[in-house]
Design brief:
This protein has about 350 residues and is mainly α. The chain has one domain (about 50-295, about 300-315): ABC transporter involved in vitamin B12 uptake, BtuC (Orthogonal Bundle), CATH 1.10.3470. It has helices at about 5-15, 20-35, 50-75, 80-95, 100-125, 130-150, 160-165, 175-190, 195-205, 205-210, 215-240, 255-265, 275-295, 300-315, 320-325, 325-344; strands at about 170, 170-175.
C-alpha cells in the first residue's frame, strides 16, 4: 500500500462522517447528552416526561421551520409567519370546533395559502423586498385576526386536535411520530422532488435559473405558499397542544423560525440547507431553551443567553456569511498592510 493510499485510508478512518451530515449528527448528539445531564440542574429535568415534552414542542418548531426553510432556500424571508400561525389558530377554534369537517380544515389552509400567494406575488413579480412585503403582511393579517375576534377568541379546541396532540401510541406522544414523519416527508419534498431541486437552483443563482428556463417567479411564490400552509398547520397543532388559541400565539416564531433554519445548517443567502438539519436544530434549540428556563434566571437574561447561543452557532457554521459581511473591513486592512510595503 502506497503512502498516498495510506493517507486517504487514515483520513477516511479518522473522519468517516463529515460536512453537513456530521454537523446534523453533532446537533442531535449534543441534545441527547444534554437531556439526561439536565438532571444536574433540576431533578424534574431529564425524565421521559420532560424529554417527550421537548420533542413535542420541537415538532411544531420544525414544522414552521420547514416552510421558512423553503423561503430561505430561495434567498428570501417570511416574517408573516407569526400572524399566520395565530390566524389559523383563531379560525381553528372558531370554525373547526363548530363544524369539524375536512372542508372547514381545507378552508383554513386555503386562507393561509392566499396569504402566501400574496406574499409570493409581491416578492417575485412586483419586486418588493421580502422583508418589507412579509412584514407588511404580518401587520395586515394580525389586524384582520384582531378585527375578527375583537380581542376575544371564540370557540373551543376541537376534540380531534386535542386527541392528536395530547394522545399517545404505545406510551409515546403522537406528535413525536408526527415529528419523525415530517422529517421524512420534508426531506423528500426538499431534496428529492422537482420542486425542491428547483428551489435549490433558484437560491444558488437566480439569474442562471432564469437563463435555463426555470419559472423563477412561480417557484418563489410556491415557496411562500407552502410556508404559509406550514404555519397554519403549526397553529392548529398549537391549539390542540395548548388547549386554545390567542392572538399572540405565533409571536414566539417571529425569529425562532429563522434561527432554527440557519442553526440547522441552511445559508441565509439561499441555495444550501436540509430539512433534517432544521429538525435537529429544533430539538437542540428547544432543549437549550428548556435548560435556560430551568435555571431560574430572569426573562431578559434567558433571551440574552438564547440569542447569544444562536449567534455563536451561526457564526461557527456560516463562515461564508460572516466573510461577506466583514469583507470590506478585510480589504481595508489589506490595503493598510500593503501601503507601507509599497512606500518602502
Amino acid at each position: 500500500m502506497t503512502k498516498t493510499s495510506d493517507a486517504r485510508f487514515g483520513a477516511t478512518k479518522r473522519f468517516p462522517i463529515r460536512g453537513h451530515t456530521g454537523y446534523v449528527l453533532a446537533l442531535l448528539a449534543v441534545s441527547v447528552v444534554l437531556m439526561p445531564v439536565s438532571k444536574l440542574i433540576s431533578p424534574s429535568l431529564g425524565s421521559w416526561t420532560t424529554v417527550s415534552a421537548i420533542l413535542v414542542v420541537s415538532s411544531m418548531l420544525a414544522l414552521v421551520g420547514f416552510g421558512q426553510g423553503l423561503v430561505i432556500l430561495v434567498g428570501e424571508l417570511d416574517l408573516s409567519l407569526p400572524s399566520t400561525v395565530a390566524l389559523a389558530g383563531v379560525l381553528t377554534t372558531a370554525w373547526l370546533s363548530v363544524t369539524p369537517s375536512v372542508l372547514t380544515f381545507l378552508q383554513i389552509l386555503g386562507i393561509a395559502a392566499v396569504i402566501g400567494l400574496v406574499n409570493g406575488i409581491g416578492v417575485a413579480f412586483l419586486r418588493v423586498p421580502s422583508f418589507i412585503m412579509t412584514l407588511g403582511m404580518q401587520l395586515i393579517v394580525a389586524g384582520a385576526a384582531l378585527g375578527y375576534t375583537k380581542g376575544t377568541v371564540p370557540g373551543t379546541t376541537p376534540d380531534f386536535l386535542a386527541s392528536v396532540m395530547l394522545g399517545k401510541w404505545w406510551g409515546i406522544p403522537i406528535p413525536i411520530f408526527l415529528l419523525v414523519g415530517m422529517a421524512v416527508v420534508g426531506t423528500v419534498i426538499q431534496q428529492y422532488t422537482r420542486f425542491g431541486r428547483k428551489l435549490y437552483a433558484v437560491g444558488s443563482n437566480r439569474a442562471t435559473a432564469e437563463l435555463v428556463g426555470l419559472r423563477v417567479g412561480l417557484i418563489v411564490t410556491g415557496a411562500f405558499v407552502v410556508s404559509a400552509i406550514a404555519a397554519a398547520l403549526t397553529g392548529m397543532m398549537l391549539v390542540g397542544y395548548g388547549g386554545g388559541a390567542t392572538l399572540g400565539m405565533g409571536d414566539v416564531y417571529f425569529l425562532s423560525s429563522i434561527a432554527v433554519v440557519v442553526v440547522g445548517g441552511s445559508s441565509i443567502l439561499g441555495g444550501r440547507g436540509s430539512f433534517l438539519g432544521t429538525v435537529a436544530a429544533a430539538i437542540f434549540l428547544t432543549t437549550i431553551a428548556t435548560l435556560i428556563q430551568a435555571v431560574g434566571i430572569s426573562q431578559g437574561w434567558q433571551t440574552f443567553i438564547y440569542g447569544f447561543l444562536i449567534v455563536a452557532v451561526i457564526g461557527l457554521l456560516n463562515r461564508d456569511l460572516y466573510a461577506r459581511a466583514f469583507a470590506p473591513v478585510s480589504r481595508l486592512m489589506q490595503r493598510g498592510r500593503s501601503a507601507p510595503a509599497a512606500a518602502n
